[in-house]
Amino acid sequence: MARVELAQGRPGGLNGRFHRVGLNLFMVVVLAHWAEHLAQAYQIWVLHWPLKESRGVLGLAYPWLVKSEWLHYGYALVMLVALFALRGAFTGRARTWWTIALAIQFWHHIEHLLLFLQAQTGHFLFGAAVPTSVLQTVFPRVELHLFYNTIVFLPMVVAVILHMRPNRAEAQAAPCNCARPLVAAGAV
């Protein structure tokens, strides 16, 4: 029964009673990932470390993490699945913004899939000597993935704010209780 509720977004499912918990856990993961990208950017552009030494925080302790296409693809896939799985409780304007993040992440996932497949097969696209994504032919990888994470994250933030502060119609349509304290207080 719980599995059916989870899939259909009924009150007991991920898009119902457990939406706020799922959303909060997902946002913690996303923010931790962001922190790694920002640490790497700081190492490159502020500390002027060589690119090979600029690996974020975890990458300093575990250098293989930065080079692991398994990890990067896995994270892109987790992002895509979580954005899709949590989408059912978003309504109105919040759903529009969440869907924008999902669509952008779908493309970001495709880019990581291309990198992953190249790393596994040893056949590199565009005559490159290393795995190369489509837009990486135009932009350096660090900057490109910082950009991708930014353009996925920003609509997510807008969606979460709108989800937590819905208008009356959105609040009534929401299957979850994320905004209930605001609704009960008459803020909506």
From TrEMBL:
- What's the source species for this entry? Dactylosporangium maewongense
Q: Where are the transmembrane segments?
A: 21-45, 70-92, 113-134, 146-164
Keywords, ordered alphabetically: Membrane, Transmembrane, Transmembrane helix
User: Which domain of life does the protein's organism represent?
Assistant: Bacteria
Name of the protein this chain belongs to: HXXEE domain-containing protein
